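User: Structure please.
Assistant: Input sequence and predicted structure:
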Amino acid sequence: MSRIFGTKFELVCDVLDRYERDPSNLIAILQEIQDAYAYLPEDIMTYVATALEISPGTVFGAATFYSHFTLEPKGKYVIKVCDGTACHVKKSADIITTLESELGLNENKKTSDDLLFTLEIVACLGACGIAPVVVVNEDVYGAMNIEKTKTLIEKVRGEEASDA
């Protein structure tokens, strides 16, 4: 969907209307809203609860139960670093430290100020044979190290600069 038009709530009303404002469609409604905003803003979830005539707790409960949903904005590029056993043994912690340093992130700050990058540390990406592994959106990079990580970030930033 990824379109935002008119006022903030026009998009939400459009989604709600397409699902006939039926509370049993809550998950699908939240998915479409997240597709448009890249996260679920608190005020929009409250609005959805009112429009569906359900408690805000029900909406927030669904949004926090399912790992697919996020309550904070994510960057254009979501970087997932595997820190599972195989990756950890092959120094994924160095990759994480490098990314945090290069992107101005830390344990409490996962998204860059320019909303370009979000760093997620995951338990497994299912690619142990090419550990340590980094995934940027849908692109998989194996046998990563500090230098390859820096080069990858420079490449993404370069692509962004040429698109601007």
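The chain has two domains: 8-65, 77-163.
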